[in-house]
Amino acid sequence: xxxxxxxxxxxxxxxxxxxxxxxxxxxxxxxxxxxxxxxxxxxxxxxxxxxxxxxxxxxxxxxxxxxxxxxxxxxxxxxxxxxxxxxxxxxxxxxxxxxxxxxxxxxxxxxxxxxxxxxxxxxxxxxxxxxxxxx
Length: 135
Prior knowledge:
This protein is α+β, with helices and mostly antiparallel strands. It has a single domain (7-130), classed as Roll (Hypothetical upf0131 protein ytfp). The protein is built from three helices and seven strands. The strands form three sheets. It has a three-stranded antiparallel β-sheet. It has a two-stranded antiparallel sheet with strand order 3-4. It has a two-stranded antiparallel sheet with strand order 6-7. It is globular and about 40 Å long.
């Protein structure tokens, strides 16, 4: 149940707990861990600056993340801190329901050839394995 103007947002990148941009959520209410239905791909955009996810018709994965309830003000602030080309869109969650997530245009990922990291088990797992390097 959300309050007036509040939005449920699926976080799966640098604003996750323990990641560098978690403070962008301000005092948003953590609801629970969640994952998407297996209909998405996950890429490392701009040498690991941020994740890029988009919906696919086949060969998708289930992306792990966290659900938060954000006030309208918290949501507007979060969107204002997102990297260029990210856009809010609905994602379908495993077990039913949906939330808003920040997606990235598949055409830009393909144009730049950014690596598909879908096999790592999520952004935090990828960053841990990559050693968070920007080399």
